[in-house]
Here is the input.
Amino acid sequence: MAVLNKIRQRSVFLILIIALALFAFVLADVIRSGGFSGKDNSIATVNGEEISREEFARQVEAYQQNMRGNISTTQAVNRVWDQQLNQIIVEEQVEELGIRAEQAQVRQMMRAQMSQNPQFTNEAGMFDENRVKEYVASLKQTSPQMYQQWLSYEEGLSESAAQNIYANMIRTGVGATLTEGKQAYHLQNNTMDLRYVQVPFSSISDDEVEVSKSEIKEYVDNHKAKFETEAARNIQYVIFSEEPSPEDKEEAKASLSELLEDRVEYNSVSKSNDTIAGFNSTSDDQEFVNSNSDLTQPVTFRFKNQLPKEFADELFNLEEGEVHGPYEENGYWKLSKLVETKQIPDSIKASHILLGYQGAQAGGTRTEEAAKQLADSLAGVVRSNKSKIGELATEFSDDPSAAQNSGDLGYFRPGMMVPTFDDFVLNNNEGTVGVVKTDFGYHVIYIEEQTEREKAVKIATVSREIEATEGTRNKLFNEVTKFEIAAGEGDFTEEAKSADYRIRTVRDVKALDENIPGVGQQRRVVQWAFEEDAKVGDVKRFDTPAGYIVAQITAKKKKGLMSPEDASSEVIPILTKQKKAEMIKEKISGTTVDQVAEKQDKIVQTANAVNLSSPTLAGAGSEPEVVGAVYALEVGETSKPIVGDKGVYVVELVSKSEAPELDSYKPFAQQETSSRRQMANSRAFEALKSKAEIEDKRAKFY
Here is the structure.
């Protein structure tokens, strides 16, 4: 009581402390999200126009729902971003050019979208604009909210129509002249016969060529557009897999083996001991599998080639009631029992009529008794005239696909149908008509054809997954935590080596990447690496579906021009090739290909019917620069050394065949026009995008 009295005396003081704590919590969150200005309410800014974070999130969620979950959040974010970016940039151009869609164009788009909607079609099945007007007028009177949604829909159509006009204007403005058509014709049809000598770059060892850091830097500076890069991170990490120990495997095996024999369990309801049948003695193998197996498989007949290949001989040759196992397959211990052996057809062709009823999976309004009576009646009709089944299936069947195919199920193998259906077609002969009840309803079945019967076995298999136990998982967690602490306080590489862990590295991870090689989707790792307070050398543990990874940031790279070190892997081969080319050119002497070949100890090769459209040299591959240089030679002339993609060439132009002139080059001009127009809009968008001022903040939120 004394304590309570003291608390009451200081209640105002306590309330003040709690209020200050709550204010500090809210203030910290405000600071993290960009202050009170609300700047981070946008996902991005494009040429001064903000993209709302909330609206963007709704579109991402809607996109994922449309894709039915077959796409990751990051993939959905990128798709929606591309759409938004395209819309904003193109809309700016549409606005600047003053493009407006006429009402007729909007109506045409509406007609295309709603032509199949029965609400807006007349008795002839044609789109009726008057019905649209009636619908809109009704919305205006009865549902102001839906009316506003309709107006937004029309506005969207208008914007799309204007954007289509803009896209068509770009495509229309791109084309090829008759002169360009003539050039294209000759590029494709003028041919040359050549003799050449190739001195490959591989003839000089890489050890003979040195490329300095200053040369790499100079090359990068001279090709800035090629080496502009986004902000990136380098990461190294160790994977810890949550795998079962040998003890775990033996425990799972023992657990499965216990299912073989009968066991006694106390029944708290009857207050007596019950004997539970084991796998060896159970009379209902399917129920036993359903109740005890980690993998539920139907107990059906299988042919030898349908059994697991590694164990097919053992399983196929079991005696009825005999059990094989435990045996290990694909991460499971398994026990398999041969239930029955039978001669059955490998393939069956049948037709059926499905009659649903209230409570059956096929549904329906009729009672079960009515469905059974109708099935028996239809079966009688089919027995007397089997050709009637197609007509009756079309009229009565509640299986839509079968109804469309006149009840024909085509050919199928044992096990493809539900068990009772399967049993009927396997236990009866060709020409049999019968009625079978399944969870879907009553089936009238007509067996049309069966292949020759052969031996099959009905196998029941109980599986137990081999997985890490809680003790193994706890041991792994302790191991991972120990390494995380040691790597954070000491040297990551040395700690990993001392524990014999494999270190994996990944370079140039971008802010919106989501995959880490070796572990798949690990968006959280990337987000952590790009956090503002993340530093080079930071270490952190992350959960994965199969265990853990412990990662370290090894480098932070800013947006801009690549450093010589980062560009070296791309630039060194280029500069090496250039230096080798100069060294080879200095060694080449002689005025004919034969002289060059003799002095360089190479062979003279020939290439016939070479053209500029497909600049390939037989024996050397694609060499567009070489073929282009030779095209300017006179017949019989020999080139100076030409640097190609795979080496240095000396080429003699043996002959040149000019394609005959045409009366008109219009088809070739049209072909060029079509080719150019296909890429026109995407290229225009990329050009506009490169000019746009874009502040992309997606990585902060996703």
Q: What stands out?
A: The first helix runs from residue 2 to 9.
